[in-house]
Amino acid sequence: MRWLRRNLVGIIGILVLVYLFVPIAVVIALSFNKPAGKFNISWNQFSADAWTNLCGVPGVCSSFVTSIQIGIISTLIATVMGTLIAFALVRYRFRGRSTTNLLIFLPMATPEVVMGSSLLALFLNLRFPLGAVTVAIAHIMFIISFVVVTVKARLQGMDPRLEEAARDLYASPRATFRYVTFPLVLPGIIGAALLGFSLSFDDFIISFFNAGTLVTFPIFIWGAAQRGIPPQVNALATIVFLAALAIVLIAQVVSYRRRRALQGA
Amino acid sequence: MAPVLPATASAAPAARRRGRAAYVLLLPGMTWLAVFFAIPFVTLFMTSLQQPVPGKSGKYAFGLEFGNYVTSMTEYWPQFVRSFAYAGIATLLALLIAYPLAYFIAFKGGRWRSLLLVLVIAPSFASFLLRTYAWRTILADDGPITSTLNALHLLPDGRVLNTGIAVVAGLTYNFLPFMILPLYAALEKIDHRLIEAAGDLYASASTAFRKVTWPLSMPGVVAGTLLTFIPAAGDYINAELLGSTKDRMIGNAIQTNFIEFRDYPTASALSFVLMAAILILVFTYIRRAGTEELV
Fold it and tell me: What is the ipTM of this complex?
């Protein structure tokens, strides 16, 4: 009884973690299923068909590629823009600072359906054709804020004495930036880019409003949900999940090793 | 275990320079946000006041038709009420579920902390739509959860799927990481010596929690509830995939009016009201809870 009381938080915590992974387990399991009817909802029979024939359903792989392309382009542009803003906010004093902060904060506090519909209202009024361009514009818009917040945190957490030391050693401002500041901020920028890509790749609501006839991976899933989601979709989602998990875990190991090395030295 | 102090910058922040260079850095990103985030709100508002062109169905022209707000609200107020009710319940449930985990990671996580945090965000790497859809399998009518609840006579309709309960369950699950991470960030900053001091002064564990830990974690509670409530109130994926037509939320109404009915003025009016309602709620909430620093 005492043991239970002392470890209650831990037990609940682990149960919550398990709960977080239950739907993931379902998604992965159903990728090996041979659906009985058109809906892949309950377990019927083991089959690796979806894995051996990943593109076996028309449209699934092209939508997957479309999402990757849009994700890469929007992430690149948003990361550059967001990083510049983060530098301005941390390193400079300027007028209009609170307006800037508000304009960064609001997209994160606005429901997606509002952002998606208002952007669609703009494109409709301008008679701008909907498609990959409008989806990328939308993604860049909502990723920027997340990049700013992530890079800003990294910049603020940096030890200013490292840059001072570089200047004391007669490094020019350019050299200080190139050999000290930038390498120190880089992990933050990479983290921001990965976050941005995952937000773009998985976005449904804003994309759906501004896609026109373009089909991204989430839009494909949405359409398939009415007719039955093919197991290939589950297989592709499993691949994305495992790849992202691997990247994050490798990053964890690298930063852990680096910290250990620094402490040991 | 030795008290773990939060890592803080070891020296004062670097002096900020003054200069025009700042505007050059800000220009591309802020222009993008102004053109594709701020201006669309103006267009949305203008669209919400448009009038139909007589004789041409599906065409709308500039107008000051505030009646669009009246008609859309009289038609869709149940969806509004449902959105705020579902999002409210889901936020409370998420807080109850997230707090123990955030507490566990912050206070007992030790050197496993960052790995545990990775596990918290990892489910987000699998498609949002598929994760939501997976709840159709978990909550299936002949599944273990529904049968157990039925055996206990807890379900008014005899099922979970295609009811409001499933929608709330989906919302609670999907936005849980948005609750866990801010709670963790707030709990992690708490100086353990304060809790130890409460114990030294003969406070029971529950009193120490109520008077020390909980108040100090308030910034995380405020940020977490906002970050959960806002996307939940605007979401329509859960209502569409897990609920019946009787459980539709305001997001569903905005989507169908915009994309299927092409009734742009009604859809824009609904969207604008949703944004305004959420902004009012957020600002009163922040004022009462007294946390100014959210970003």
Answer: 0.93
